[in-house]
Amino acid sequence: MNFEQMQYVKTIYETESMIRSAELLHISQSALSQSLANLEHELGYKIFKRSRKGTYPTDMGNTLLPYILDIYEAQQKLETKVRALDSKLTGTLKIATIPTLFHQIVPRALSEFKKDYPHIEVQVEEDDRDHILQRVENQEVDIGLVAKRESETFKSTIVDNDLNLATDFKLIVPLKSKLSFQSSVSLQQIQNYPFVLFDRNLYQHSIKQFEAQHGRLQIVFRTNNPGVLIRTVSEGLGLSIISSLMLENDPFVEQDLIDVVPMGEPFNYHVFFTALTHANQPNAAIVKTFIQYLRQ
Prior knowledge:
By secondary structure, the chain is an alpha/beta fold. It has helices spanning about 5-15, 20-25, 30-45, 60-85, 100-105, 105-115, 130-135, 200-215, 225-235, 245, 250-255, 285-295; strands spanning about 50, 55, 90-95, 120-125, 145-150, 160-165, 170-175, 195-200, 220-225, 240-245, 260, 270-280.
């Protein structure tokens, strides 16, 4: 009996599939089956039964599984403690981020970071860009994740750590809209269409400038929730503008529930994502390490 077998049992229990478990564990199905058979032989009881519908615990398996899962969890706690003892990084990391990075980049980076540094407490808050800049300046957060224009610069007290990531903007429209045939669409072309505003500083600023020159848009709905925005467009209630990055892996796009069209003026530019830190950063080692995870 070994810790590896405990992980195998946990994965089989969660997936209810030997094939899927082998894929997740990166081993062959035959190796997984043999390891399980060895454990069952050692215990003297069958833990799982197989059927066409999947792999499920036997009656005795249901009795033994809580103990097996306890062993697995104890092993995880032990490994976490050992990594914490070996690590030179300590403390708390506070992050403020715009929604685009909050939804698309931060979860993956944070998950990997926490695997390697589970003892470091990480606090993440979604916020508006302007407020994030202020919080970095006041050293209320360690890292501020924002978007910027290519030529934009910041105060001398702010360090700009480029994340090597950029995005452009797309018009999202209800399925089968006549606008879907366009190679690109300017904001002026959709001025009289019902419009759903992504109520964030970057979008507000560009639209206010446009309205000052060309008159008001037909804004019927405002939201700072990208999921609500995309769903609203899919229901045919209006058009909207959102970054391409926010649309990556979105189920409404993947299932062809909305159409996506390149944006023209005044949204025909790229923004670049960066991690802002204060020049006098007390948590410099942790901050530098986490930014490396964001860049991966």
